[in-house]
Request: fold
Amino acid sequence: MSEILKTEQTNISTINYTVPISDELIENILCTAFEGGITYWAENVSCKDREDMKKVGGWKHEYLTKTKLKDAVMYIHESETGEKYPITKKSIIDALQKMDNPKYSCTKALGRILDETYDACDADIAVQMACFGQVVYG
Reply:
């Protein structure tokens, strides 16, 4: 005779902890996204202030971390609708924080980003979270 074990479901609590996000990590996420992660849904990346972009060196993935402008904005141009979605350094950091919430199913991608073992798909998720607040494509 076999015995059936019943397990009680316990309440699960979560904690938020502080993880330093370097400018270099933000640059690398954006570079990976711009070079392959978002190309299937985004047709262009532009900058609000082109003159400032030139001052910083012209590399789009470095603009948000190198500019001295506090309100620096880049735009991701969606292929399907042509709509422009703003991203900022803060929106990338907020997206990474949001990815830690299990309801968005992005915790594994966040883990790879924080371990710096991520790929274009993970960078795409981070940019989509920054643009849309959720993963819309893929």
Notes: The chain is about 45% helix and 10% strand.
